[in-house]
Design goal:
By secondary structure, the chain is of the alpha/beta class. The protein has helices at 10-18, 28-33, 72-76, 83-90, 104-119, 144-152, 168-181, 205-208, 267-271, 281-302, 320-330, 341-344, 351-361; strands at residues 54-64, 68-71, 94-97, 128-132, 158-162, 187-194, 214-224, 238-246, 254-255, 278-279, 312-315, 370-377, 381-388. It has one domain: Peroxisomal Thiolase, Chain A, domain 1 (3-Layer(aba) Sandwich). Helices cover 31% and strands 20% of the residues. It binds oxa(dethia)-CoA. Residues 81, 85-86, 89-90, 166, 205-206, 209, 254, 281-282, 284-285, 288, 318-319, 322, 346, 348, 377 line the site of oxa(dethia)-CoA. Oxa(dethia)-CoA (UT7) binds at residues 81, 85-86, 89-90, 166, 205-206, 209, 254, 281-282, 284-285, 288, 318-319, 322, 346, 348, 377.
Length: 399
């Protein structure tokens, strides 16, 4: 039974810290009642594209972080924690929190607009939109990608989501690369976006200090290969290797226990706070530092490179200690590691594309550079890839 007591809810605590009121009214009911008129499909372009192998490259990137900053000091006013503890154990100093009007799709749309601008493309150029997330706008459907498709007016694009938690973006890179390389699609918008603050138990200091909200996006596109034949590796630009892995035996180390088919929402599940992220931090830490270096080493070797050939390490921004451990295990140079976990916390599937985009904006990632990306987290899942960075044809900085 739901207790009648008046203890402040987690959302009340967060609202208190941010000096806002939290609007509990969701958009779903109002939107569902609006009438819908199916639109006519665009006529076929007649272009010879489908089924022809293509060389793949990343043609643009964008990012979006909510304006609201929640510092460690802010957190310490309503959670039993300290700035010293959070900094020492994670490297995090502050994170961004979505406003009550923002959702995973709205973060995605902002990042997508930046990616399109840097690529010099419009929504009409998109064949497909993929959103990597586990914090969708709705409780299962529709997917976030369809909301983004509609908002952008990307009328030729298909749309689906990928859920591989913090590894999602690296999985998405593989899917998008394969679809473009095979010639099935020409231009794909790939987004990593999360509104993790809605899944945080603000009474649980072991998780709520770690995560933040945000979105990053890239455009993946292709050009016909000169010979018209497929090559495993692009001559310049694009994905040079991909390693994906999963170990479902460790699933309980990082999960949202309720809300799915296994434990549908109930008063009991809400009272037991089972709709929030639960994590055995030590288990996930051990998994990360033992599995990710091997996956990264394999990705570097499969690309035909050595660690010294890697210009930038863009690893999932969960904890600066993990990033340092992985780079050290690989024998890489720390000054080639990209770190922004101090400012954004762990943004799950958004962390790698946000970091890639920020590295471009800061001039740390340039055309021709080889960048190692890696994600790891819920599932347990992991992924690592080497990308040769490509020039962008559009705006250099959409901000
Ligand atoms: O993106 C998905 C992947 N996620 C990750 O990669 C996260 C992996 N795990 C980690 O990064 C680390 O395990 C954490 C940062 C989550 C925790 O660091 P830790 O060094 O493993 O700390 P711990 O869990 O062993 O906790 C140490 C102590 C405990 O107290 P006792 O039992 O030693 O008295 C905790 O209760 O720190 C306590 N503690 C805190 N104290 C202040 C836990 N959370 C907090 C907190 N503030 N927020």
């Amino acid at each position: 039974m739901r207790p009648e007591g008046s203890a402040p809810s987690a959302r009340d605590l967060l609202a208190l810290s941010l000096g806002t009121t939290v609007d509990n009214a969701g958009p779903g009911a109002e939107e569902a009642s609006q009438s819908f008129r199916p639109r006519r499909l665009s006529p076929p372009t007649g272009e010879r594209w489908h089924g022809t192998p293509h060389q793949v490259r990343i043609a643009g990137c964008g990012k979006y972080l909510p304006e609201r900053v929640l510092t460690n000091h802010d957190l310490a006013t309503f959670v039993d924690t300290t700035d010293e503890w959070i900094r020492a154990r994670t490297g995090i100093q502050e994170r961004r929190i979505a406003s009550t009007e923002e959702t995973t799709s709205s973060l995605s749309i902002n990042a997508a607009r930046g990616a399109l601008a840097t690529a010099g493309l419009t929504p009409d150029d998109l064949d497909l939109i993929i959103v990597c997330t586990f914090t969708g706008d709705y409780g299962g459907m529709p997917n976030v990608a369809s909301v983004v498709q509609h908002a952008l007016g990307a009328n030729r694009a298909g749309a689906f989501d990928i859920n591989a938690a913090c590894s999602g973006f690296v999985y998405g890179l593989g899917v998008a690369h394969g679809l473009v390389a095979s010639g099935l699609h020409r231009t794909i918008l790939l987004i990593g976006a999360e509104t993790l603050s809605r899944y945080l138990d603000w009474h649980d200091r072991t998780t709520c200090v770690l995560f933040g909200d945000g979105a990053g996006a890239v455009i993946i596109t292709g050009e016909a290969t000169a010979t018209g034949t497929s090559t495993n590796r692009p001559q310049s630009g694009g994905l040079m290797s991909l390693v994906l892995g999963a170990d479902g035996a460790g699933a309980n180390a990082l999960l949202v226990p309720a809300g799915g088919t296994r434990l549908p929402p109930s008063y009991e599940s809400i009272d037991a706070r089972q709709h929030f992220i639960k994590m055995d931090g030590k288990d996930v830490y051990r998994f990360a530092v033992s599995t990710v270096p091997d996956a990264c080493a394999e990705a570097i070797a499969n690309a035909g490179l050595t660690v010294d050939d890697i210009d930038l390490f863009v690893l999932h921004q969960a904890n600066v200690r993990i990033i340092r451990a992985v780079v050290e295990a690989l024998g890489g140079s720390w000054d080639r590691a990209f770190v922004n976990v101090d400012r954004y916390g762990n943004t799950s599937a958004a962390s790698v594309p946000i970091a890639l985009c920020e590295a471009v904006e800061m001039g740390r990632l340039k055309p021709g550079d080889r960048v190692l990306v890696a994600g790891f987290g819920g599932g347990l899942t992991w992924g690592a890839a080497v990308i040769e960075w490509s020039p962008f044809a559009g705006l250099t900085n959409p901000d």
